[in-house]
Task: structure prediction
Amino acid sequence: MTAPDLAYRINRIQSYLGFPKSEFPELEAYGGIGWVEEEFSKEDMQLKREEQDSEWVGEELSSLDKQLKLEEKEDELASWGLDGEEESSIKEGILMS
Result:
């Protein structure tokens, strides 16, 4: 394991435990603590998507259920500040299921 990987993992554990994140010189090449925060945000969004996808597996949804899921997803995307192009690809995925 490389030093930047280890520093990132330490920061991740500190974040989960609610401790302040340490600043490591090994992360400066990547952008320091700002880069760490950005990576955490990406991981969190990916985990949320995976959780939602797993909730829908094996479910038969009525057209009303699909519409409600679509509206929930749109609200969530809007709260993340995503644009319409990304939203439309997700809409297609929801309606196809």
